[in-house]
Specification:
By secondary structure, this protein is α/β, with parallel strands linked by helices. The protein contains 15 helices and 16 strands. Helix 4 (113-129) crosses helix 5. The longest helix is centred in the N-terminal third of the chain and has 17 residues, at 113-129.
């Protein structure tokens, strides 16, 4: 494990309390990969400085960013989908002509294990260069028992070999494969849930929306997933209002994600059940059919709101949490403080983790050293290199300082 002292922090955002927990002129000590001391630099106890040091140079430092929603493991390209949508082709029309999820499934099934691992590792590296230190990774581009388990194995391999903290999610219910009937495929997913758990999946997710899986199908799958020992997540209210937000509340899902068409009733149900709402503005922007009032609906109902990249090949080819945060501020009119909480401690809550997303004693030593002396600059300076260094469990994994 790694020891580190980070000095010269102009503003440290700890995420302590209800705000961002600013400590001025701060230092952070990491021992064996965990935060062991946080405070004002002049108060640093004698003896704690006897370890490798990183000088932040007066920069603003935040917890490492937490991305609670990605589809990082895929092969091939969906550039044709992008071009067609710009010409006015709808998401459904793209899928009907052979594009969309099924196109990626074909290319992913044809790729070797090594090709899938290397491509996903490169995406994790790109995310870490912009300050991400914790990621959730979904399957969903296999859509057969063997292929989905292969993707789970890739995700587990990444979890064991990458320094970032990784959560793995089984998303067999991403789409109904064209070579299967609807009811048989739902039954197949349910039958595979114990095997997914054996392949170290921690979560189960279902794409519950128009053109995807119904409320009843999602309820069956997620109920069986809970019995198999998996945590629950749900793609909800992305394409249209379906009642999936209420279903997430009914089942006690850790999160409901997308929520472009959530209404007040759904938001209130989520808040009462403690379901975290994960907004994915890069996907909303790409598809162009979302509701930029979603954050105010959720926040107004008292929902804990997180942000994620939804990194995928077709509708959100994005690894950067700072980009997503800036987009949230400009499109949802989300305040800067809310965006930072949504990308750190709230995103950790969506994964039911308390050891990441905060800079407190006992948390993982994960830090993002910004290329700015104030957090607002990260979001206001569009197109800039956002992060000067990323610290993951006390190791400086990416550094320009």
């Amino acid at each position: 494990m790694t020891d580190l002292l980070v000095r010269g922090i102009g503003r440290l955002l700890t995420m302590q309390g209800s705000g961002v927990g600013v400590v001025e002129d701060a230092a952070v000590v990491v021992t064996d990969g965990l935060v062991s001391w946080v405070g004002h630099s002049p108060d640093l106890p004698a003896g704690l400085g006897d370890r490798p040091e990183l000088d932040a140079g007066g920069a603003c430092v935040t917890p490492g960013f937490v991305d609670p929603h990605t589809h990082l493991i895929w092969a091939g390209s969906r550039r044709d989908d992008f071009v067609d949508r710009l010409d006015g082709t709808s998401y459904a029309e793209v899928a009907a002509r052979g594009g969309g999820i099924h196109s990626t499934v074909q290319q992913t099934r044809a790729a070797s294990y090594a090709e899938l691992y290397d491509a996903a590792a490169a995406r994790i590296y790109a995310a870490a260069r912009t300050g991400t230190t914790t990621l959730e990774i979904k399957t969903g581009y296999g859509l057969s028992p063997d292929d989905e388990c292969r993707l789970l194995d890739v995700a587990d391999d990444l979890r064991r070999h990458c320094p970032e903290a990784i959560e793995t999610t089984y998303l067999g219910a991403h789409a109904v494969p064209p070579d299967s009937g609807r009811t048989p495929y739902v039954n197949e997913i349910i039958g595979e849930l114990p095997n997914a758990w054996m392949h170290n999946a921690g979560w189960c997710d279902v794409f519950c929306d128009a053109g995807a899986f119904t409320l009843d199908e999602a309820r069956r799958i997620l109920t069986a997933a809970r019995e198999a020992g998996l945590g629950l997540r749900l793609h909800a209210e992305q394409i249209e209002r379906t009642g999936a937000a209420e279903l997430a509340a009914e089942l006690g899902c850790a999160s409901a994600d997308h929520l472009d068409h959530v209404d007040t009733a759904g938001a209130r149900a989520m808040a009462a059940a403690g379901v975290v709402g994960v907004l994915l503005p890069a996907s909303t922007l790409t598809l162009g059919h979302g509701n930029w009032d979603a954050w105010r609906t959720l926040d107004g109902a008292g929902v804990t709101v997180a942000l994620g990249t939804d990194c995928n090949p077709g509708t959100s080819w994005c690894e950067s949490m700072p980009y997503v945060m800036a987009l949230a501020c400009l499109s949802y009119r989300m305040p800067v403080e809310a965006a930072f909480r949504a990308a750190t401690v709230n995103a950790a809550a969506a994964l039911r983790r308390t050891d990441v997303g905060r800079v407190v004693v006992g948390a993982r030593g994960d830090l993002a050293i910004l290329n700015a002396d104030h957090e607002a600059d990260l979001l206001a300076h569009l197109g800039a290199v956002p992060v000067a260094a990323t610290v993951t469990a006390g190791a400086t994994t990416h550094s320009g300082v």
